Amino acid sequence: MNIALWIVAGLMAAGFLFAGANKLLTSYEKLAQTPGAGWANDFSPAFVKLLGAFEVLGAVGLILPGVLNIVPVLVPIAAVGLGVIQVGAAITELRRGEAAHAVINLVYIAAAVFVAWGRFSGVPFG
C-alpha cells in the first residue's frame, strides 16, 4: 500500500508541479489563449498566478514531508488541498461546457482522495 501511495503522490506531484509552474511562468495573455485553458479568461491574472503557486506548494507538500519525515501529516493535507482545487476546476469546466476536461479533474480528485485516505489512515512512509 505504501508503494501505491508513493506512486500516486509522485504522479500527482509531477502533474501539479508542471501545471503550477506553467501558470506562474507563462504570461496570463498567452495562457488564456492556450487550447484547453480558456477557463483563465474567467479569472483575474492575480488569481491564476495564486492558483499556480498553490499547485506548486501542494506538489511539494505531497513529497517532501514524507521523504524528510518532517511533519508528515502535511502530505494528506496537501492531497486534500489539491483535491479541493480540482473540485473547483471541475465545476468551472462543467459550467463552461467542457465536460471532457472535467474527466481529468475527476481522476485527480480520485488520486487525491486515495492519498489523503491512505496517509490519514496511518500507512507508514517507509
UniProtKB/TrEMBL annotation:
The keyword Transmembrane applies. It is found in: Membrane. The chain crosses the membrane at residues 6-25, 46-64, 70-91, 103-120. Its main location: membrane. Keywords: Membrane, Transmembrane, Transmembrane helix. It is a multi-pass membrane protein. The keyword Nucleotide-binding does not apply. Pfam families: DoxX_2 (PF13564). One of its GO terms (cellular component) is membrane. It comes from the Bacteria. This is DoxX family protein. It comes from Subtercola lobariae.
